[in-house]
Backbone:
């Protein structure tokens, strides 16, 4: 029996509405008890619990990231499940959902199981998202029920959007039967050929092909129509569409309307899309290149509005590590994506909590209970008794500086190097094990 | 890891050690290994004649560094820069050939061309040669680029071979920044994707100035003064494939600084509305004839078929609306100076009648090109990098 008592901290658990001083006892990988300060001391002593002093700290559920690229199998030079989950732990995440665009593509039970094997040495829980179609080619629907049974929590052809209406319709229908959400990377690739940033005046100035906002909103609208049509065909379980890394005001508006009409549509926004605009590209900085691209200030403000009014269900990083030599290329040739696991909490606190006055509990909800709910991760993102002992301790009233060179990720492709962010993370506990401890300065 | 020698006894490659020291060339200075904070290539740029300058093999370029002798974007040029470049151009133009070709005797200039070019490459090459520099041409075909070498490595290789300045033409917008950051050398942008072609804008400016009577005499006296009113009252219309044109961008960023009004003219598919937001002094007029009526200078552009990438153009309709032919010119802008950066597609955007006619300054442009490029090379080879040099912002 291994126990940890976290005492003296301020516990914020959006899943239960708790927001007060509480001591927390973890036992055998689960939340065993929480009570007013001091009242668990005797029990902890009896159990010989490890005592963690959390005075002045926020105790929150371990964060949940439903959109990461861990690059294994096949691209271990960018990231491994081991290194990626260490970065996750350093960023306060205890559950990460790994996209299937690996080499080979994760479209099978074997790879889905392989990713979850203890041999991968993950330090936090990895939930695979399987490919929606074989090889993410957009042609043949994968075996959703078997993938679900093997541990997949959703299906997606992330990065290779499903353009064919009938395939997307079929995917939504089959996924509903298997009880899985379909995550769509909404991009009409017929409109984005050769494009490497947001379409508009800046793209013109830089001589780069732009991705129009319509390329995103067009697919979101199409998917919503398919979902509505499916609803009428009574396929048993209600189909669930989740829009990945939503980046434009237009697509957000489409999701807002769909939600109002009662469709089961959810969406996520990445921290870089509410923290930065296309101006971050500067003199062709490839660490500001990702897909969807950084957008205009109007889009950024609309996303913040959508987060504040509840249209946005979750914050997800789209953590996309790439090696230095891949990013040190001509802008148009460099791969899309930036790392994000270690800066997500800080950026959320900075932009949403500090600059836009979102209550701390809501900011935490967007990074824990709400994403867990979107992908039905049971007993995650919560500190209710019986939940997994996934906990993050951070200091809300202090700032820290992020240095890319110190990142736990194998890759350092981030536009946030040197940024001063709120919320230094002191400790991350995954299923009762301390997986990140910054209380003692590492020497 | 570099091999660590305990004693510097056997010196088979003294140059490598000399590279870390400063002052004179190889062999003379390794007794005083003073460390100075240098720009990545100062040793090469200032070494005395007679010894071959040893490049700094492990020079790390500070983040955001761009060599001040670079010419990457017309937006970087201040009025003072423009004045200095044009003044230098006139000086070089007037200089006796036997003096001019001693100016940078045996200095090394590399031409790195990832795209085909006749005019620009020859112009830069002859400009460097007429200053006495050695030039070497590396083109994408028949080089290690074909084998997959990165731009960064190609740049470092050229620097190690002693190149003190790289003239780059590249199909990707922004590539000169990457090369500048990787090598720390002055980069002369000879056209990058659809981004910029700053030497073209300068040569266009010199051509325009040569046609302004007041400036002609001032320039001849070597008393050229460039202000924000130098081109006051002058309207330059740029016509055609603006979307893909680096020439249009560089001109639209440069000419309004001197007070010119720039009109972009073309169909929506080649000229999106937001193009006018590129900077102050730029507007859009889609009707070619209305634009011509306001123009002192009209610059015709080629439709860049190689960059259309799926865009559909009805050429017949395009020619009907935007071709510059004799009748149109005579009717709407009989006194306008006609420019074209080349290559011209006769019979498409421009007719032979106009290209060879009295309004055409196309051949003059080519002449001014070689003069301007000499001036840009002196700027690149003379400039001393400073470590504090901030990356100049585009906007």
Residues:
């Amino acid at each position: 029996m291994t126990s940890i008592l976290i005492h003296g901290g301020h516990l914020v658990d959006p899943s239960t509405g708790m927001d007060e001083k509480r001591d927390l006892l973890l036992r055998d990988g689960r939340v065993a008890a929480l009570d007013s300060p001091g009242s668990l001391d005797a029990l902890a002593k009896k159990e010989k619990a490890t005592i963690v002093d959390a005075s002045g700290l926020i105790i929150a559920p371990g964060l949940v990231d439903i959109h990461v690229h861990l690059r294994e199998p096949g691209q271990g030079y960018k990231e491994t499940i081991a290194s990626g989950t260490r970065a996750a732990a350093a960023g306060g995440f205890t559950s990460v959902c790994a996209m299937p665009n690996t080499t080979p593509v994760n479209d099978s039970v074997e790879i889905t199981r392989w990713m979850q094997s203890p041999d991968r040495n993950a330090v936090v829980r990895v939930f695979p998202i399987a490919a929606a179609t074989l090889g993410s080619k957009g042609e043949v629907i994968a075996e959703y029920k078997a993938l679900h049974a093997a541990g997949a929590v959703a299906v997606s052809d992330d990065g290779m959007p499903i353009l064919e209406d009938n395939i997307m319709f079929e995917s939504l229908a089959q996924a509903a039967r298997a009880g899985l959400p379909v995550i769509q990377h909404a991009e009409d690739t017929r409109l984005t050929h050769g494009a490497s940033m947001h379409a508009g005046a800046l793209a013109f100035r830089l001589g780069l092909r732009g991705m129009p906002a319509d390329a995103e909103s067009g697919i979101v609208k199409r998917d919503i129509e398919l979902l509505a049509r499916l609803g009428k065909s009574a396929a048993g379980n209600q189909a669930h569409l989740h829009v990945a890394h939503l980046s434009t005001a237009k697509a957000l508006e489409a999701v807002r309307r769909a939600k109002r009409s009662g469709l089961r549509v959810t969406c996520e926004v990445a921290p870089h899309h509410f923290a930065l605009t296309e101006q971050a590209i500067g003199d062709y900085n490839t660490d500001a290149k990702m897909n969807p691209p950084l957008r205009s200030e109007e889009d950024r403000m609309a996303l913040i509005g959508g987060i504040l009014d509840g249209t946005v269900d979750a914050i997800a990083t789209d953590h996309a590590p790439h090696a230095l030599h891949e990013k040190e290329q001509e802008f148009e040739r460099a791969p899309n994506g930036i790392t994000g696991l270690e800066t997500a909490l800080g950026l959320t606190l900075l932009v949403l909590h500090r600059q836009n006055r979102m209550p701390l509990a809501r900011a935490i909800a967007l990074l824990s209970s709400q994403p867990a709910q979107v992908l039905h991760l049971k007993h995650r993102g919560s500190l209710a008794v019986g939940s997994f002992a996934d906990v993050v301790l951070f200091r809300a009233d202090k700032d820290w500086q992020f240095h890319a060179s110190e990142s736990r990720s194998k890759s350092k492709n981030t536009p946030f190097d040197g940024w001063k962010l709120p919320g230094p993370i002191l400790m991350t506990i995954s299923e009762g094990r301390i997986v990140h401890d910054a209380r003692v300065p590492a020497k | 890891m570099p091999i660590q020698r305990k004693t510097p006894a056997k010196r088979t490659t003294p140059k490598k050690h000399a590279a870390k020291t400063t002052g004179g060339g190889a062999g003379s200075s390794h007794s005083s290994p003073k460390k100075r904070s240098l720009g990545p290539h100062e040793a090469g740029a200032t070494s005395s004649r007679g010894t071959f300058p040893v490049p700094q093999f492990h020079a790390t370029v500070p983040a955001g560094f761009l060599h001040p002798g670079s010419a990457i974007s017309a937006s970087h040029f201040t009025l003072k820069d423009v004045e200095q470049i044009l003044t230098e151009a006139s000086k070089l133009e007037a200089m006796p050939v036997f003096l001019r070709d001693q100016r940078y005797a045996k200095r090394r200039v590399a031409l790195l061309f990832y795209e085909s070019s006749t005019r620009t490459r020859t112009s830069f090459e002859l400009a460097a040669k007429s200053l006495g520099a050695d030039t070497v041409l590396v083109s994408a075909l028949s080089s290690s680029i074909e084998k997959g070498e990165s731009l960064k490595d190609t740049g470092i290789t050229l620097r190690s071979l002693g190149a003190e300045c790289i003239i780059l033409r590249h199909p990707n917008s922004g590539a000169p920044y990457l090369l500048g950051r990787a090598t720390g050398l002055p980069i002369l942008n000879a056209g990058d994707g659809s981004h910029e072609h700053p030497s073209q804008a300068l040569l266009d400016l010199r051509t325009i100035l040569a046609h302004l009577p007041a400036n002609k005499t001032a320039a001849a006296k070597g008393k050229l003064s460039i202000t924000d009113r130098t081109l006051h009252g002058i309207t330059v219309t740029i016509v055609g494939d603006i979307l893909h044109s680096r020439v249009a961008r560089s001109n639209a960023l440069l000419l309004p600084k001197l007070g010119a009004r720039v009109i972009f003219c073309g169909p929506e598919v080649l000229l999106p509305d937001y193009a006018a937001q590129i900077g102050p002094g730029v507007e859009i007029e889609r009707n070619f004839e209305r634009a011509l009526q306001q123009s002192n200078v009209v610059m015709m552009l080629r439709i860049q078929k190689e960059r259309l990438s799926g865009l559909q153009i009805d050429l017949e309709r395009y020619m009907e609306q935007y071709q510059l032919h004799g009748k149109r010119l005579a009717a709407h802008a009989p006194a306008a100076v006609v420019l074209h950066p080349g290559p011209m597609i006769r019979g498409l955007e421009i007719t032979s009648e106009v290209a060879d006619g009295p309004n055409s300054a196309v051949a003059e442009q080519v002449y001014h090109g070689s003069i301007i490029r000499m001036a840009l090379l002196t700027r690149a080879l003379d400039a001393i990098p400073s470590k504090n040099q901030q990356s100049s912002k585009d906007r």
User: Anything to note?
Assistant: Strands of chain B lie at 108-113, 134-139, 165-170, 187-192, 235-239, 261-265, 282-284, 297-300, 337-339. Confidence is low (pLDDT under 50) at residues 5-49, 387-395 of chain B. Chain B touches chain A at residues 150-152, 170, 172-175, 177-178, 182, 192-196, 243, 246, 249, 272, 274-275, 277-278, 309-310, 391, 393-395 (CB under 8 Å).
